[in-house]
Amino acid sequence: MNDPRTPIPASGIAQIGVSVPNVSVRGPEVPRTIEALDPVFTVSGLSVFYGDYEAVRGVDMTIGNREITAMIGPSGCGKSTVLRCFNRMNDLIPGARAAGKILYHNEDLYGDHVDPIEVRRRIGMVFQKPNPFPKSIYDNIAYGPRVNGVKGKMDDIVEEALTKAALWDEVKDKIKQNALSLSGGQQQRLCIARAIAVKPDVILMDEPCSALDPIATTKIEDLMQELSRDYTIVIVTHNMQQAARVSDRTAFFTAEVDAEGVRHGRLVEFDETSRIFTNPSDKRTEDYITGRFG
Amino acid sequence: MSAQHLKTASGASRSLARSRPRYGEVLVKAVLMLAALVSVATTVGIVFALLEPTIEFFGEVSLGEFFGSTTWGPLFNPPAFGVWPIIVATLEITLIAIVVAVPLGLAAAIYLSEYATPRVRKIFKPVLEVLAGVPTVVFGFFALTFVTPLLRDVFPFLELEAKNGLGAGLLVGVMIIPIVASLSEDSMAAVPNGLREGSYALGASKMLTSVRVVVPAAFSGIVAAIILAISRAAGETMIVAIAGGFKSVFTLYPGDEMSTMAAFIAQAGSGDASVGSIAYKTIFAVGSLLFIMTFAMNYVSARMVQKYREVYD
Ligand SMILES: Nc1ncnc2c1ncn2[C@@H]1O[C@H](COP(=O)(O)OP(=O)(O)OP(=O)(O)O)[C@@H](O)[C@H]1O
Ligand SMILES: [Mg+2]
């Protein structure tokens, strides 16, 4: 394998509390800093509102280029909410509004000139529940390129995307069959392939494995590792071992109750995954990853 | 105490048999079944009521004459039984109605389901359904006294007769818009939101998402809506009787006065055709034909839906 990365084994979880000074998640070319050197997203002071309710308050973080960033935290702490800001998916929810700043390659993602449709073309998303269109496997993949007016041989685009998503061998003989005839894990890989087919820059994944069995999960994790050579990936997960296995950096969110008794999602700690899981600096992070909170 | 107690607590000693009969359940089931039977019985009753006079009709008039001639005039002397003029008029008016109602109804449904804010939808949908409740006699007079005169002023070269297929067809179309719109909107609203999000996440616009994802996923419901609308259009009586007229000369030109099958039935039925007369039996023969046409269309389109629909779960 020529993968430069040495994933933390699942047993890394067991080492929590033990300080391991030289755990290297990536090869030496990536420095050990909290700030990604080559950020795709730079988030500062991000707050997200649903109507009057401030669901997430004051998030600062950076997403490094071709890294896998994991977002973890208890249910309702605003992980999906933050994730959906990265491709302006929240625009589609009436009353949802983001304050603060998200820079995408140094361009204000919420600037007046920005077209959310163009944003979503560059920043793809995979959802918790596999949501293939009720069309053929082929048409599912071809949908994105078609609506984006991509020229070129569609057959090749479809094959390439399915190959990258490690699904081609399983479906090449039934490419015209309805996508819903696939298994859940295959459907989710199809959704990943569908996202890849429009050649995005970033892929956002919101609990992509939560509906899948361990084998399908492993396949998707392998796929994420593979894809992170070409793509920047942000993944929300409830599975801490998954975050530990696949990600370079981890953001831990939790919900805090303010003076008026209202709950807001907060970013507690954002660091290299190895640090978060071996030597977290915040007590709440430690409690959460050791299962004392949650 | 403890052994007995434990046994009860774990439920092991209690029988699983029903402890008392549930008469309510039985009654409810019987009442519901009765209600279902009423509609089935009505349909069967209609078929039988149509059948006997229809068979008698074809004892006097040959199928060859019925389908082989284009002169229609069962109430004339001597009568003529070539049914084509009223079939063609029915098809023409239905076609005009569909051409009006499908684009407008679908557009309204897409607007309501995909674009309108919840508030607009809450106002708009009931208004649409009120339109469905307008008595058709109102549409008929509107066609006769407003639409046709307007068309004659604006397009004199069409040479519309005072009663004509076009004016009637347009208003039949307006009448069935709510059916198309409301039922299509229901099935579009039932499309899971995940499909829309999947489409938006790929950089599709709202319009593309509506047309390429939502409408295909709601296709079977939309087709069902259109079929129901066609059936209503083909059977519509009041509008065509008032605005289309009763002249049953074979014509393909919608600017002419024309009588549809339903209009003929109304005309003959409100006249003094005595029971057992040939005019009386003709009413039933035409009724059977209309029934068969609607039924066949329903059947064919149901098969079509089976074949082309996109099932989403
Ligand atoms: N569409 C919405 N309208 C109003 N409030 C919302 C909406 N979506 C989320 N919220 C609220 O925002 C908060 C954060 O929700 P979010 O879905 O981001 O949490 P999450 O961390 O992804 O949780 P989970 O792990 O359960 O998916 C919650 O309090 C939730 O009730
Ligand atoms: Mg979530």
Detailed description of the structure:
The complex is a heterodimer of chains A (294) and B (313). Helix content of chain A is 30%, strand content 25%. By secondary structure, chain A is α/β, with parallel strands linked by helices. Chain A has a single domain (35-289), classed as P-loop containing nucleotide triphosphate hydrolases (Rossmann fold). In chain A, the strands form two sheets. A six-stranded mixed sheet of chain A has the order 6-7-8-3-9-10, sandwiched between helices. In chain A, helix 6 (184-197) packs parallel to helix 7. Chain A starts with 38 loop residues before the first strand and ends in a 5-residue tail after the last helix. Residues 1-33 of chain A have low confidence and may be disordered. With 313 residues, chain B is an all-alpha fold. Chain B has one domain (67-308): MetI-like fold. Chain B contains 13 helices and two strands, in the order αααββαααααααααα. Chain B has helices at 2-10, 23-60, 63-68, 84-115, 118-133, 136-154, 165-189, 193-200, 206-217, 219-235, 238-244, 261-270, 278-308; strands at residues 72-73, 80-81. In chain B, strand 1 and strand 2 form a beta hairpin. In chain B, helix 5 (118-133) packs antiparallel against helix 7, helix 7 packs antiparallel against helix 10 and helix 7 runs antiparallel to helix 11. Chain B is globular and about 85 Å long. Classes of the chains: A alpha/beta (294), B mainly alpha (313). The interface between A and B is medium-sized, with 28 and 24 residues. Magnesium ion is lined by residues 79-80, 206, 236 of chain A.
Short summary of the structure?
The complex is a heterodimer of chains A (294) and B (313). With 294 residues, chain A is α/β, with parallel strands linked by helices.
What are the key terms here?
heterodimer, A: 294 residues, alpha/beta, Rossmann fold, six-stranded mixed beta sheet, 10 helices, disordered N terminus, B: 313 residues, mainly alpha, two-stranded antiparallel ribbon, 13 helices, globular, binds adenosine-5'-triphosphate, ATP binding (chain A), ABC_transporter-like_CS (chain A), ATP-binding (chain A)
